[in-house]
Amino acid sequence: MKKNKKKKVKKKKKARKILPKIKKKVKKKKILRVKRKKNIQKKSVLKKKIKNNFITKTVKVDEGRLTKIFRYEGTKKVPIEVGEAGDIVVIAGLEKANVADTICDLEVNEPIEATPIDPPTMSIKITVNSSPLAGTEGKKLTSTQIRDRLILEAQNNVGISFSENSNKDAFEISGRGELMLEILLTQMRREGFEMTVSPPKVLFKTGENSKKLEPIEEITMDLDEEYSSRIIDSMNRRKGKLIELKDTGKNKKRLIFQAPTRGLMGYTSRFLTLTKGTGVINRIFHSYGDFEGDMEGRRNGALISMEQGKAVAFSIFNLQARGEMFVTHNDPVYTGMIVGLAPKPGDMIINVMKGKKLTNMRTQGTDENIVLTPVRQMSIAEQLSMLNTDEALEITPKSCRLRKAILDPHERKRSEKQNTAT
After folding, report:
1. Which of 32, 187, 202, 219 has its CA 20 to 30 A from that of 309?
2. Are 11 and 18 in contact (CB under 8 A)?
3. CA separation (Å) from 243 to 221, 238, 318?
4. Does residue 398 form part of some domain?
5. pTM of the predicted model, to two decimals?
6. Cβ distance 177 to 261 under 8 Å?
7. What CATH number is attached to the domain comprising 339?
8. Phi, psi of 101 (to 5 degrees)
9. Domain closes at, from 74, 96, 116
């Protein structure tokens, strides 16, 4: 019994000796952590109501005071007095500061190196909806509302630039590719805006010896081997150059192209059609390269409505042989609206409101069963890529309609004659 008691006492003594050692180690770790935090605070701190420089490429832009600092905690913005290194913060008080600028103390003159932002490569012109159906679907219709929304977008989105004409009724928005512009138009559409959008234009540059340059994109495609020949053929028509072709697995290929942005408008939907929905495409801005020359536009002519009202199934059924129709029974139409595509070049004015004449005469084959082909559902980017220079896209919260820029047919002919004369 005495021996067992001695063993127990020894164990207790050992435990007492070990415990203080552990406590000491923990204390040392805590002291080190505090030191690290102090070092971080000394390196970079944003404080309110203290004057700060902000510099771009070694050029001092302006100086001012930070009036507010917010830190993100999850999805919430929390007001703070001091922002430390590692915090994701939102600041207020510096109006001219932009992305990639360095905000620093007045004594600092050298900015931190920043990655360059890709320049805008495409632009569209947005105006008020001037169609006869304006105001029937949307709530925000005026040019002032559209202007304020676009200015707000240009402030928040780095890749978008905003400009306007002298009358402040037409606004030009430039962005990095059609996807960025499509996202903006979709957001505005959901917010209740109505607007008319012009065909997209590629932004050219002039290089050395006044050489014309255009934006070139790098396209990476992953697809099945059986579709590779179709894709290569379609990219050749769009002035694309095959840079790399490699195997990525069993009957799989990866194609890397470099092609001008002009030829890639609306190509994503075409790519998915050619690969039967199995392909994956990724596009990124590469550089400005030499102008590749003229490119083929839309070959098909437009089928234009001649009256305002609602489309009739009987008329559409008889016109289906003339081309692809974009409207179905009871859809609203107006004069100058594009209701379909003709198989041949050249516009054609048609009447989609002509109903069946009611008579007492009955002959075999008069009462045919009317079957309409389903209307193709197109995205905003696909519709923009179809537009010719004299056409526009009407965007409302409920529908997108292709139309002529000049709705009246007589005025349209007059302007065409003036353009050919000049």
Report:
1. 187
2. no
3. 12, 15, 48
4. no
5. 0.76
6. yes
7. 2.40.50.250
8. -80, 150
9. 116
In this structure, how many other beta carbons lie within 10 angstroms of the beta carbon of residue 206? 9
Measured between alpha carbons, how far is 395 from 132 in angstroms, rounded to an integer?
13
Task: Provide the angle, in degrees to the nearest 10, between the axes of the packed helices 267-274 and 228-237.
Answer: 150
What is the CA 110 to chain-centroid distance, rounded?
Answer: 34
CA distance 137 to 399: 9
CA atoms of 135 and 177, how far apart (whole Å): 30
Q: Could you tell me the end-to-end alpha-carbon distance of the chain, in angstroms, rounded to an integer?
A: 120
Is pLDDT above 50 for 154?
yes
Whether residues 314 and 387 share a domain: the answer is yes
Q: What is the domain count for the chain?
A: 3
Residues 6+ apart with CB under 8 A from 385: 178, 200, 265, 266, 267
- For 418, the token pair is 């003036």
Phi-psi bin for 100: left (phi > 0), alpha (psi -120 to 50), beta? left
CA–CA dist 301, 184 (Å, integer): 29
Over residues 97-114, the pLDDT tens digits come to: 777 778 887 787 788 887
Q: Residue 2 — very low, low, confident or very high, per pLDDT cuts 50/70/90?
A: very low
Is 322 in contact with 340 (CB distance < 8 Å)? yes
Alpha-carbon span 94 to 401, nearest angstrom:
42
Residues in the chain: 422
Among left, alpha and beta (phi > 0; psi -120 to 50; other), residue 97 is beta
Residue 145 Cα to chain centre, angstroms: 21
Q: Which two tokens stand for residue 122?
A: 């495409």
388-416 confidence digits (pLDDT tens): 889 999 999 999 999 999 999 899 889 88
| Stretch 62-67: mean pLDDT | 80
What six digits make up the tokens of 14? Answer: 């050992």
Looking at every residue in the chain, the average pLDDT score rounds to 82
Strand partners, 103: 54
Q: Which domain holds residue 378?
A: 302-357+369-392+407-421
